[in-house]
Amino acid sequence: MNEQTARPVALVTGSARGIGLDTAVDLSRLGWRTHVVWRSSNRGELEERFPGRVHQGDVTSEEDCRRIVRAVLESDGRLDGVVHAVGEYLAGPLEGLGTNDLRHMLESNTLSAFTLIRATRAQLRKDRGAYVFFGAAGVEGLRARADSAAYFMAKTALLSMVRSVAKEEASYGVRVNMLSPGLVPHEHSSADTKALAGSVPAGRPGRGEDLAHAVAWLLSAEAEHITGQNIDVAGGWML
After folding, report:
1. Distance of CA 126 to the CA centre of its chain
2. Rounded CA gap, 142 and 191, in Å?
3. Which residues pair with residue 38 across a beta bridge?
4. What's the pTM?
5. What integer pLDDT is reported at residue 188 of this predicted model?
6. How crowded is residue 198: how many other Cβ atoms within 10 Å of its Cβ?
7. What is the number of other CB atoms lying within 10 angstroms of the CB of residue 141?
8. Which of 45, 133, 136, 192 is the most exposed place for a label (fewest CB within 10 A)?
């Protein structure tokens, strides 16, 4: 085994922008052979950063997930880490939402994760790899959510699934964990979101690199005895 093929391989979904892109960049910097997935934009920029390891697809589609995993294995022959950064956000109380809104939240945040697990489970067992999913700070508390009820319903379902899969996969050496960001403003954040930045107990809002560094640690051998956990990376937000 040469130095190139000894480097671990990661697949990061939702990696065209935001936390997913920050995670992919950080893993690549640390020596991972990092594969990224885009759905509808950013192909050119991603090709420059991750040449030969860029895949187009919709991870709610089982066919797309299987195709992407085949491409990863054809390129690099193994899969050591899967990071799922897909999950759209919808604000508002349930009273103002329709059935399609709730269905979309569940498909984007929960079903997409389940579909990806189905496509990657066998290979992660073979390579004794690890999964990392993204939740939302405070999801453990099962509190009422006046401003984002459907989104937190989907993230709560995701957490339950993460823990169930963690238990199923533990005997195969596969670790399954969740990281939950708090307030992480971005260029498209609302004025209200940006105004809340001063409310974070740690004194600043989150940054993409905060989550990216935590992902790298959870995928590393240093975290080999950690599975089924949800870790808030939120500066105390939602305490």
Report:
1. 21
2. 27
3. 56
4. 0.92
5. 47
6. 10
7. 11
8. 192
What pLDDT, on a 0 to 100 scale, did the predictor assign at position 228? 98
Only one residue has tokens 């999964």, namely 131
In which element (H, E) is residue 38 found?
strand 33-38
Nearest to 119 by CA among 57, 187, 48, 31: 57
Q: Kindly list the structural domains of the chain, giving each domain's residue range(s) and its CATH number in brackets, ordered by start.
A: 6-233 (3.40.50.720)
Alpha-carbon distance of 122 to 87, in angstroms, equals 24
pLDDT value for 208? 87
- 173, with CB counted inside 10 A (0-12, 13-18, 19+), is middle
Contacts of 218 (CB under 8 A, 6+ apart): 130, 132, 175, 177, 179, 226, 231
Ranges in the chain, pLDDT < 70: 1-5, 41-42, 186-195, 197
Model pLDDT, residue 55: 95
Distance CA 192, CA 210 (A): 22
User: Sheet containing 33-38: which strands, arranged edge to edge?
Assistant: 54-56, 33-38, 9-13, 81-84, 130-134, 175-181, 230-233
